[in-house]
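step=encode ok
step=design start
structure_in=
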């Protein structure tokens, strides 16, 4: 769905690692506990079957391609843990089954579409065909009977795509990538005006000047 080369572009926040805040003034014990639990999630299914999990891995790989030069965010495992722990959003759009049921139904339907069109399950398709099926799901063009009353475009936008993106940006690796400092507890943020930052926030490289940003980011705690 996205160009993997763009995901490998140089960092906008060079030298910044949000985990350098671990023992500093920015995070308290509760914050460290939550982040440690998130970092410890193993890349293996608890909610999904192995086949379903392989499909989620293949979907996540196309929606959010990740750079090859760092350990990947375990997106599928984070989605799986959310469903296993029944951490729900507290609301559903009309016609959408409960979170776990919607995922199982959507994955079954997507694999049925892949098998009918190409003779293989979704995870075994080349990237271009995966992208084509995902775009068709996003636009509501898929019609396999396995979808039942679940609209593929609603599943893509309100469940599958949403859960995958939220899982990615719930992980500290993604926080470092976007220059976020993690939960603001107990230190908080002081400079709240546009284009201002606190000394304990990441500096963005501007006009190609990565060296200045890198020097600043080494001191962020």
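sequence_out=
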């Amino acid at each position: 769905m996205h160009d993997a080369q763009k995901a490998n572009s140089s960092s906008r926040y060079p030298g910044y690692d949000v985990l350098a805040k671990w023992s500093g003034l920015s995070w308290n014990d509760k914050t460290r506990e939550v982040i440690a639990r998130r970092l410890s999630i193993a890349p293996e299914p608890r909610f999904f079957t192995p086949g379903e999990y392989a499909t989620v891995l293949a979907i996540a790989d196309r929606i959010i391609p990740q750079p090859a030069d760092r350990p990947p965010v375990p997106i599928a495992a984070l989605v799986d843990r959310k469903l296993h722990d029944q951490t729900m959003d507290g609301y559903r759009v009309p016609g959408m089954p409960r979170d776990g049921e919607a995922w199982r139904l959507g994955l079954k339907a997507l694999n049925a579409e892949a098998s009918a069109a190409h003779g293989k399950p979704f995870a075994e398709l080349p990237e271009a065909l995966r992208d084509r099926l995902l775009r068709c799901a996003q636009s509501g063009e898929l019609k396999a009977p396995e979808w039942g009353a679940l609209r593929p475009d609603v599943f893509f936008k309100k469940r599958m795509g949403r859960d995958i993106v939220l899982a990615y940006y719930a992980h500290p690796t993604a926080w470092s990538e976007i220059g976020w400092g993690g939960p603001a507890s107990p230190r908080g943020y002081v400079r709240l005006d546009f284009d201002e930052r606190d000394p304990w926030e990441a500096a963005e490289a501007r006009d190609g000047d990565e060296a200045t940003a890198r020097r600043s980011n080494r001191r962020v705690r």
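step=design ok
step=annotate ok -> Residues 75 and 164 are 6 Å apart (CA to CA).
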